[in-house]
Amino acid sequence: MENRDASLCYIVAAGMSKIGKREEDGVELFVEAFNEATNTIEPRDIEAVYVGVQSERYEHQIMYGALVAERAGLLMREAYRVEACAAAGALALHTAYMAVRSGLYKVAMAVGLEKMTSKNTEEVTDSLMSASDYYLDQLNGITIPAQYAMLARRYMHDFGAKEEDLCLIAVKNHENALYNPKAHIQRRITVEECMNSRPVARPLKLLDSAPISDGAVVVVVASEEAARRYTDTPVRILASTVSSDTLSISQRRDLTWPRAVHSAAEKAYKQARLKPSDIQLAEVHDCFTINEILLYEALGFAPRGCGYILAREGETQRGGKIPVNTSGGLKARGHPVGASGLAQIYEICQQLTKQAGKRQVDAEKAIAVNEGGVNSTAVVHVLAV
Amino acid sequence: MSAEFLSALCEGRILASKCGECGSCSLPPRRRCPECGAETGYVELPHRGRIITYSEIHVSASRAELPYVVAIAELGEARLPGIVRNARYEDIAIGDEIEVIIEKRPSESPLSCWYFFRLTKQKR
């Protein structure tokens, strides 16, 4: 019997479809990601499948667990969908991690997918809105962008950040995506262009917002013993944690403090026996520019109220003290909602194993923050080589 | 307990819950405190309060007339989000005073009554 305390969980393979406006349906995008991931492992070794998907509204489809297992040639495995809006992807990985850490399975697959572009912006906004409190927010027509906008408005009021500071995040992430061949948007933007883009929910504008995208990601995890069969350089999962806050931002004591993210991060740092200053790379949930700034603070990269200054000083660019969203983030790599959490993991694996090409940074320890319901469910992973 | 919130609203009262142990207030009211899990009691909220944050929505499927302004207001010890009917983005600042107006809804509507905010006093 293996010593449970010493049991670890490794990422042995990852694959990602090109993100963007795609002709293929969600499951076909999964196959694209799966084919890449299974270049280096035997797909039939996979014993369990967990799929993160946000909504049935886009493809009028649920039961993605069974559907994905069917396409992967993995019938009669444990296969099901997990859901926490935009945190679904990382939650699928957390589920796979628990399955392996518990000793139940040796090899498990996490999948994230979403096919959104067949719907228009209003329909997507409405579908995302089901991730907010029905009585307090939905009945008042308070969209998800408006909730982030209200966080932004309060943050600017309390800490003196300007709309231009938010745009700096967009400029940085668009710049990073130029070097990511799988990114949805490969276009350099300026602060001025961002400031002049049309309002979505003031003070947030179109270029403060992640695009509507299609995409799928696959991450395969394995126990130490199984991992050794596939690769000499697996990525270790040092921590995988989840915390929840109230669904409506209105019920949170402190609007500009993403408490669930902070809580999950504290648990993750403790699990990984690391502190914020040990982290050399981060992928964080920048569905709207303001959130990247809030997450700098919740992760301990900047003191409270100073996240925007970290961005102003360029410390989160490639080459800065702590590069954030080298992939382009949700903002420019794209945001196929259920897939985004695993797209973060894919990027970190590329970086830690030195396969990130022109956007390569020097890092051995990284953190990923994926959240759903406006920081209501936060999923944090710490990875290392 | 959203039913209690709605029936109280139709009687002109805004009902929240308050924790007997940690004092934390929640909307809509619930039996257990989300913070500490202790049992709560009801508390009635004042109809006037201050805006703690706001936005103006330009993309939405839920309302025909765009844009519209939404806010979160502090009413006594609790916080309530809502639509601000009589203001544009430029008119509002954090700290402005609002009044909660409760109105009857048409009989075919799923809710017999609901509320909105009216900006009553600007801070500046």
Describe this structure in words.
The complex is a heterodimer of chains A (385) and B (124). Chain A contains 14 helices and eleven strands. Chain A is of the alpha/beta class. Chain A has a domain of 135 residues: Thiolase/Chalcone synthase (Peroxisomal Thiolase, Chain A, domain 1, 3-Layer(aba) Sandwich). In chain A, the strands form two sheets. A nine-stranded mixed β-sheet of chain A has the order 3-2-4-7-1-8-11-10-9, sandwiched between helices. The longest helix of chain A is centred in the middle third of the chain and has 16 residues. The relative contact order of chain A is 0.19. The N terminus of chain A is likely disordered. With 124 residues, chain B is mostly beta strands. Chain B has two domains: 45 residues, no CATH class; 79 residues. In chain B, the strands form two sheets. Chain B has a five-stranded antiparallel β-sheet. The model of chain B has no long low-confidence stretch (mean pLDDT 93). The chains are: A alpha/beta (385), B mainly beta (124).
- Largest sheet, strands/sense/barrel of chain A: 9 strands, mixed
Strand arrangement, major sheet of chain B: 6-5-4-7-8
Query: In one word, what is the shape of chain A?
Result: globular
> Order of SSEs of chain B, N→C?
HEEEEEEEE
The CATH class label of one domain in chain A is: Alpha Beta
Oligomerization status of the protein chains: heterodimer
Q: Helix fraction of chain A?
A: 25-40%
What is the helix fraction of residues of chain B, given as a range? Answer: under 10%
Succession of helices and strands of chain A: EHEHEHEHHHHHEEEHEHEHHHHEE
Radius of gyration of chain A: 19 Å
The N- to C-terminal Cα distance of chain A equals: 26 Å
Unreliably modeled segments of chain A: 1-6
What is the residue-averaged pLDDT of chain B?
93
Q: Main sheet of chain A: which strands, in order across?
A: 3-2-4-7-1-8-11-10-9
Main sheet makeup of chain B:
5 strands, antiparallel
* Structural class by secondary-structure content of chain A: alpha/beta
- Quickly count the domains of chain B: 2
